């Protein structure tokens, strides 16, 4: 019976056949232990010299790291194994023998591993991170489908910026200027006016010359937008969504979390509702913690976000930022014109902002005023203005950065390991 490593637990005491690669091996004079992987997981294959043909033993002794194989054997229960089983091998068929595989069990530098990212993905740790990423994506679709959202795909090539910033990748679109999308939000607002509750999931690009462990040039965003939803209700949906992701990873990625050595108690705490602190109170808190230079009206950097998060043991919303440091489309607080109805969700353990969201301006005249204040091109943004002209409603939305969320839930140090092929300031290869 042909099967996969992931399904071996369903075939205890049965003979099966798997296709696999040799991740590593060790042997004595009588037994060889083959660490096998097939993409669905890792399992140990045990070859006992006295119980197999001489050719099988010779193959087990000589086969090289990352050679591809067909392995036949009997599945046995093994409580010491992360998968709960091991494979007692009876037959080995070498499909292709790998020669001088560059990533060996010894220590390698980060640059070497990044140059060999196409191979590094095969390692147990990187495999675990990508499996967690996949679970977050799966749970995202499940959550929003259950909550009645429709997935709508915004364009990647746009004629303008979502936030009026200068961190744009410019290109030519035949005879006019175009840019790689920083966000699908503006288009998702249009979609929300047609479908009520929508979300997008796709790549976004920021031409920021940053080398921090939190930044990528190309990253993936989940961006829901919701008609007839005001700020507080949006925050409730955000915390329910993040709690759902954490629960799904805990339930479905136990092997991967253990492989990474993740402190599961930190993830078990992630349950809605999340604490909230206003920008005003965050400034006071930072001053109490010794950040004497921070003044009202300044944006928070990584050290500030980390210091705020340390006061809580789960994600925390920082709400109502000053209008002047936020995007043009954010709705002012009806009780305070100098702040807007927005929030950033800060992950604990120093992982920083994972969600930014706000209630959007729904008043046509106020949006026209914002266009003038931010010197936005009426021609490029006319379609966006029309959303306030034809059946405007209160609406809110947010964006979750996939890679920051993967890094946080996985407990890894650097965001570059949270995406299969990272694009960094000085890296476009492989």
From TrEMBL:
Principal location: cytoplasm
The encoding gene: asnS
Keyword Ribosomal protein: no
UniProt EC number: 6.1.1.22
Organism: Pseudalkalibacillus berkeleyi
Family designation: Belongs to the class-II aminoacyl-tRNA synthetase family.
Full protein name: Asparagine--tRNA ligase
Aminoacyl-transfer RNA synthetases class-II family profile domain residues: 130-430
Domain of life: Bacteria
Quaternary structure, from the entry: Homodimer.
GO molecular function annotation: asparagine-tRNA ligase activity
